[in-house]
Design goal:
heterodimer, A: 164 residues, alpha+beta, three-stranded antiparallel sheet, 3 strands, 57% helix, B: 208 residues, five-stranded antiparallel sheet, 31% helix
C-alpha cells in the first residue's frame, strides 16, 4: 500500500531549516546586544569628554599665558615641552578618574590642534591662537569593544591673552 | 477482504529520531529565549544608567554655568549655588521653573536620592521646594579647585573648605549610583564629573 507521511529526509531538511532560522535569530540578538553595549560605551565617552573639557577650561589661567610659556620652554630646554606636560598631566588625571576596571583598556589621545602642527609652535601657534581667540584640543576615545567606531571630540577653551 | 495484519505508521527508529530532533530543537529555543531576555534587560540597564547620568550632568552643568556664588562643603556633601535671575532675564531652576528673582539651588543626598532644593525670597519669607534629581545615589563627594592668578601652578582639586569658596573656579562631583527600584543595574556605578564656573571665572579675571 502507498505510504503517507514524511520521509526521514524531509524531516531532517525541515529540522535544518528551522535550526538555521533559530541561529539567525540568536545571531541577530547577539549583534543587537553588542550594538547596545557599544552605544553605552559611546554615551559614557561623551560624558567623559565633557568632564575633560571642564578640566581644561578650569586651567584657562595657565593656558592664557601658555603660548609665551611655551616659547620660553622650547627656548630654554628643547626636550621639555611645556604644553605637552600640561596635556599629559590633564589626560593622566582624567584617565585615572574614569578608566578603571572594565574601562582600563580604553584608548584615548588628547592633542592640541594648531593648523600647522605642533612643530610650528611658538610664533605661529601664538599667531593662530591670538587670532582665533581659543585653544583647540582634539580628544579621541576608543572603547575596547568598539570595532571601528571611536568618539572624536573637539574641546574648545576660550583664550584670553594675559587673562590672569 | 483486505489483509488486516498490514500495518501502517512510523517505525520505532523513525519515532526515536523525531523525538531526539524535537528535543534538541526545544532545548535550542529555550536557551535562545532566555539569552534574548537577558540581553534585552542589559540593554535597558544601559539606557536607564545613561539617562540618570546625563540628567545629573546636565542639571549640574546648567546650575554651575550661571553660578554667582558657590557654597560647598565636602564634609556634609552639600553643594549650594546662588544664581541671579530677574524678570527681564529669567533663569530656569533645577525644578525646571523659570525664576523671576535670585534663587539658591542646593544639591544634597536625602535617603539615597540626589535632591535639588530651590530657595528664594517671597514676601519677606523664604520659600523652598525640592525634587529628586536621581534615585539610588549612595555616595556624593565634592571637590573644589580655586583659581590661581599670577602663578605658574596648575589647578588642584581639594576638599571644599570655607576658605577656598570665594575663589572656587571648578567643582568636581563624585557619586555612586546603586541598584534601586527605578534603576535596575547589576553593579553599582561610580561616576564623576567636573563643572566649570564660567561666570565666576570671568569676574575673577576682570577684577584682577
Amino acid at each position: 500500500m502507498k505510504q503517507q507521511g514524511f520521509t526521514l529526509l524531509e524531516v531532517l531538511i525541515a529540522g535544518l531549516v528551522i535550526t538555521l532560522g533559530l541561529v539567525a535569530v540568536v545571531t541577530m540578538q547577539v549583534g543587537s546586544q553588542q550594538r547596545g553595549f557599544e552605544t553605552h560605551q559611546k554615551n559614557l565617552a561623551g560624558l567623559y569628554a565633557q568632564d575633560l573639557q571642564a578640566r581644561l577650561n578650569a586651567d584657562a589661567c595657565y593656558l592664557s599665558k601658555a603660548v609665551s610659556e611655551l616659547e620660553k620652554f622650547i627656548e630654554n630646554n628643547p626636550t621639555d615641552k611645556g604644553l605637552d606636560a600640561f596635556i599629559e598631566k590633564h589626560e593622566t588625571e582624567w584617565r585615572s578618574k574614569h578608566f578603571k576596571d572594565s574601562r582600563a583598556s580604553w584608548k584615548t589621545s588628547l592633542i592640541e590642534k594648531f593648523e600647522l602642527g605642533v612643530t610650528a609652535a611658538s610664533e605661529k601657534a601664538k599667531e593662530i591662537i591670538d587670532d582665533k581667540g581659543y585653544w583647540e584640543f582634539e580628544l579621541t576615545i576608543k572603547p575596547t569593544n568598539a570595532k571601528k567606531d571611536e568618539v572624536k571630540q573637539s574641546l574648545i577653551v576660550r583664550y584670553e591673552k594675559d587673562g590672569c | 477482504m483486505k489483509n488486516k495484519a498490514k500495518q501502517e505508521g512510523f517505525t520505532l527508529i523513525e519515532q526515536l529520531i523525531t523525538l531526539a530532533l524535537g528535543a534538541l530543537l526545544m532545548a535550542g529555543i529555550a536557551t535562545s529565549v532566555s539569552a534574548i531576555t537577558r540581553a534585552q534587560n542589559l540593554t535597558q540597564d544601559y539606557g536607564n544608567l545613561h539617562e540618570s547620568l546625563s540628567f545629573i550632568t546636565s542639571s549640574l552643568a546648567r546650575s554651575t554655568r550661571g553660578a554667582e556664588k558657590v557654597n560647598a562643603t565636602s564634609s556634609n556633601a552639600q553643594l549650594s549655588i546662588t544664581i541671579n535671575s530677574n524678570a527681564d532675564r529669567e533663569t530656569q531652576s533645577c525644578l525646571a521653573k523659570k525664576m523671576q528673582q535670585n534663587f539658591t539651588e542646593t544639591y544634597s543626598l536625602v535617603d539615597n536620592n540626589l535632591v535639588c532644593e530651590v530657595e528664594y525670597a517671597k514676601g519677606g519669607s523664604t520659600v523652598s521646594h525640592s525634587e529628586v534629581i536621581a534615585f539610588g545615589v549612595t555616595k556624593l563627594n565634592l571637590e573644589c579647585a580655586k583659581i590661581e592668578i599670577d602663578t605658574d601652578k596648575l589647578i588642584e582639586f581639594k576638599a571644599c573648605e570655607e576658605t577656598t569658596l570665594d575663589k572656587v573656579i571648578a567643582v568636581r562631583v563624585e557619586l555612586i549610583l546603586d541598584k534601586n527600584e527605578f534603576l535596575e543595574i547589576e553593579k553599582d556605578f561610580e561616576y564623576n564629573s567636573t563643572f566649570y564656573l564660567r561666570s565666576k571665572h570671568g569676574n575673577e579675571i576682570k577684577n584682577n
